[in-house]
Amino acid sequence: MAKMPDIIPVTDLRQDAAAALKRVRASNQPLVITQRGRAAAVMLSVEAYERAEHERQLLRLLARGEREIAAAKGYDLHQVLVEADRLLADA
After folding, report:
1. CA gyration radius for the chain?
2. What is the pLDDT of residue 91?
3. What is the pTM of this model?
4. What is the pLDDT of residue 66?
């Protein structure tokens, strides 16, 4: 079961932004900011943002590989492993 995200109204954020930042850093979970009862934005720690960007980059590469396989294009296994090692080293 997925964990419910932390939610904070924009008025509470305005009153105590430092506490909201502390909460995001400590939990390493996103904080949903609402305005007029609706989700308006998401606040993430820098670490969570960087991790999500890295995962998105890996998913893009996998999708590109799927398209290339479907188009009968490809790379040598050695090239793929070198690129994978480079990406994993960046993590």
Report:
1. 19
2. 65
3. 0.64
4. 87
**Total residues found in the chain within this entry:** 91
Structure tokens at 20: 């909201």
Tell me the C-alpha to C-alpha distance, in Å, between residue 65 and each of 6, 15, 17, 73, 88.
36, 48, 42, 9, 17
**Facing residues of 38 across strands?**
35
Contact by Cβ (8 Å): 48, 28:
yes
Cα–Cα distance, 91 to 87 (Å, whole number): 7
**What are 41's two structure tokens?**
């934005």
Which homologous superfamily is 6-44 in? YefM-like domain (3.40.1620.10)
User: Average pLDDT, stretch 3-26?
Assistant: 91
**Whether residue 1 has pLDDT greater than 70:** no
